[in-house]
Design a protein that fits this description.
Chain A is built from 16 helices and three strands. Chain A is an all-alpha fold. Chain A has one domain: Ammonium transporter AmtB like domains (Ammonium transporter fold). Chain B is elongated. The chains are: A mainly alpha (about 450), B alpha+beta (about 110).
């Protein structure tokens, strides 16, 4: 069985941590009477709420600061509302589709719909044989991943998409895109997982997935009125800066939490989330300087987020030096994607979700196949020998995630269009979505 | 009575206020404004998107004084707000028809 070979390969070292949680292991470990460690449990509970902090208020402020002041509340409301919606859908059928018992390579099963069979005494396996965490904690941790991913997608469609359409899109997108991709990459019998794809904390599932979906969604939705002739500068880079800080801090739950235990693998992920991110922030400003511009605050924030994105799949699969190089390269590539590619192609990815999360996620996911090598300080048992094979798996996973996200998003967007229409009226768009969609203003001086 | 309306660089406000204090100006009104004259705007870049900003931030100061006092006020502002570079701003002097102190109902020069 493929899973067994993965288990064996992983058992050689921290490689096991290369894969996020797999409920299949819960069954395997059940025979060995798994023990629940209080330290692991406390860390995973902490990690879950750290990821929530990344969304509200982290992502809400990061995105909110980047739009014009007339749309601030609509962004914060959309991010918060799809996050809340994702939580309910997750316990409804998401957890079961991604991590339920049995199923096939694409989705698990509907055996745990509405958390059937999950109780305070059931457990989910970790990467250490015989060690488990309470299943509710695993459900909560993975729930926050679904919530942030759907919220990330909204970055490309802000300032013009109807609130009702956002909610419908979110529900369908989670069901047909996120849950299957999460299962394929992280499920014990998932398609990419069985191939041995490396994705420590969600480079493909969260970032490529959200980035590509954001691109497809904004292409179907169309440009904002006035784009790109009219100036649309961010209304508060202070808010964006605060949001960036909250994202960085919260990301330790996201990355180090993906070890599922409070151990050395989590420590490696933590280390890389410090230095990879730092390298990304500085590299973006360096790219600006080399292109003859000033090193900017928004550039620094953008580079930090690219660093976080790129280090996500690599967090427990790379040495610190590998992470620094990977995130620096990602920052340069994303800088050109955002400042050159987007204007050249003319799409209106308003907050650069594709340029930062999609492109950064691809560089990270593919680069993980390189920095994983022991020759570059990674935790793999192989030096150069396994790299080509690993890269092939990484490329296939990235390609398949792109295709799945593109097709699924197209379906979800058109369903939303048929039910509610996608765009607000021209008057609402010009006046701002805060007044038009929510009847409030962000700032009453 | 004269209304002295000055548009100055924001960082010069404190110096102007002190200079006006030195010649015993009783009160003034300040508001944030944006505008342009000979001074060119500047370029802002957000993730590669370049915006020419023509309207630059300014401070507008309004003072109403007795006719004979206006010249000294203008002089004080001109000296204190000057940096010597383009964009220092302008001073306008206008006639004022009537002034009323709301609390007491005093009129014109008494109201200043």
């Amino acid at each position: 069985m493929k899973l067994v070979s993965n288990l064996c390969r992983g058992a050689a070292g921290v490689t096991l941590a290369a894969f996020a949680a797999m409920p299949v292991w819960a069954q395997a470990a059940a025979t060995a009477a798994p023990t629940v460690n209080k330290g692991d449990t406390a860390w995973m509970m902490t990690s879950s709420v750290l990821v929530l902090m990344m969304i509200v208020p982290g992502l809400a402020l990061f995105y909110g600061g980047l739009v014009r002041s007339k749309n601030m509340l609509s962004v914060m409301t959309q991010v918060g509302a799809v996050c809340a919606l994702a939580m309910l859908i997750w316990v409804g059928w998401g957890y079961s589709m991604a991590f339920g018992d049995g199923g096939n390579a694409v989705i698990a099963s509907f055996s745990k719909v509405f958390l059937k069979g999950v109780s305070s005494s059931t457990t989910a396996a970790t990467f250490t044989s015989g060690v488990a965490i309470p299943e509710y904690v695993f459900v909560c941790f993975q729930m926050t991943f679904a919530a942030i991913t759907v919220a990330l997608v909204l970055g490309s469609v802000v300032e013009r998409m109807k609130f009702s359409a956002v909610m419908i899109f979110g529900a369908i997108w989670l069901t047909i895109v996120y849950f299957p991709v999460a299962h394929m990459v992280w499920g014990g019998n998932g398609y990419f997982f069985s191939m041995g794809a490396l994705d420590f904390a969600g480079g493909t599932v969260v970032h490529i997935n959200s980035g590509v979906s954001a691109l497809v969604a904004c292409l179907i939705l169309g440009k904002r009125i006035g784009y790109p002739q009219e100036p649309m500068p961010p209304h508060s880079l202070t808010m964006t800066g605060i949001g960036t800080g909250l994202l960085w801090v919260g990301w330790f739950g996201f990355n180090a939490g993906s070890a599922l235990e409070a151990n050395g693998s989590a420590a490696l992920a933590m280390m890389n989330t410090f230095v990879g991110t730092a390298a990304g922030g500085l590299a973006w400003m360096l790219a600006e300087k080399l292109m003859g511009h000033k090193a900017s605050a928004l550039g620094f924030c953008s580079g930090l987020v690219v660093g976080l994105v790129a280090v996500t799949p690599a967090a427990g699969n790379s040495g610190p030096l590998g992470a620094i190089v990977l995130c620096s390269v990602a920052a340069f590539v994303c800088y050109f994607a955002v400042t050159k590619l987007k204007p050249a192609l003319g799409y209106d990815d308003a907050l650069d979700t594709f340029g930062v999360h999609g492109v950064g996620g691809m560089v990270g996911a593919i680069g993980t196949g390189i920095v994983y090598s022991a020759a570059l300080g990674g935790p793999s048992a192989d030096n150069w020998m396994g790299m080509a094979a690993q890269l092939k798996v990484q490329f296939m996973t990235v390609g398949a995630t792109i295709a799945w996200a593109a097709v699924g998003t197209t379906i979800a967007i058109y369903v939303a269009k048929a039910l509610t229409g996608l765009r607000v009226s021209k008057e609402t768009e010009l006046e701002g979505l805060d007044i038009g969609e929510h009847g409030e203003r962000a700032y009453n001086y | 009575m004269k209304l002295i309306l000055a548009v100055i660089k924001p960082h010069k406000l404190e110096e102007v206020r002190e200079a006006l204090g030195d010649i015993s100006v009783q009160g003034l009104t300040v508001s944030e404004a944006r505008g342009y004259g000979r001074q060119k705007g500047h370029t802002e870049i957000y993730r590669g998107a370049e915006y020419e900003t023509n309207l630059v931030p300014k401070i507008r100061v309004e003072i109403v004084v007795e006719d004979g006092f206006a010249e000294r006020v203008v002089e004080a502002i001109q000296h204190s707000a000057r940096t010597g570079s383009i964009g220092d701003g302008k001073i306008f002097v206008l006639d004022v028809e009537q002034a009323v102190r709301i609390r007491t109902g005093e009129q014109n020069d008494d109201a200043l």
